[in-house]
Amino acid sequence: MRRLTKEEKFMRRAIAAAKRGLAQGEVPIGAVVVYEGKVVASGYNRRAKLQLASAHAEMMAIDRACKKFRSWRLPEGCELYVTLEPCPMCMGAALNARVDKIYFGAYEQKGRSLTGELAAANLLNHTVEVTGGVLEEDCSGVLTGFFTAMRQRAKEEKERKKAEDAENEIEK
Ligand SMILES: [Zn+2]
Fold first, then answer.
1. Whose CB among 68, 72, 82, 171 lies 3.0–4.6 Å from 31's, allowing a Cys bridge?
2. Active-site residues: which are they?
3. Is 108 exposed, middle or buried (0-12, 13-18, 19+ CB in 10 A)?
């Protein structure tokens, strides 16, 4: 087996974070912040648990990293790894925290990268480098696995309900 690149190694850590969310019934998206070759913070999507629109994996990881460094401005060289392409809110948070590089796994939309467009806008006069498609298949696999299981559960629930209704009908 070939050795994992540095990017793949850290993306694996983000996938592990996503799976922690999965175990709690969340849409599995994970993120880690890396500084000087070490993971300094991680987070996963907790939107369902917290019922907060802002409880995205990247926000969790960035907030934790800021707390760790006791600064809203992260030290130079911080990198963010996330399993799914960041949304504009998380891109904004990464820019505000002065993250230097973002690596994401799965693309949000085929053929268009809003993240790339936001990075190119040079908001806050801060340059952020964005690389998509790191362990893309693994990252999107975790997500599609979740949605397939969810659809399967919904289908089973519907069939169970139908059988129940049919039974009630016979009893009448
Ligand atoms: Zn987001």
1. 82
2. 58
3. middle
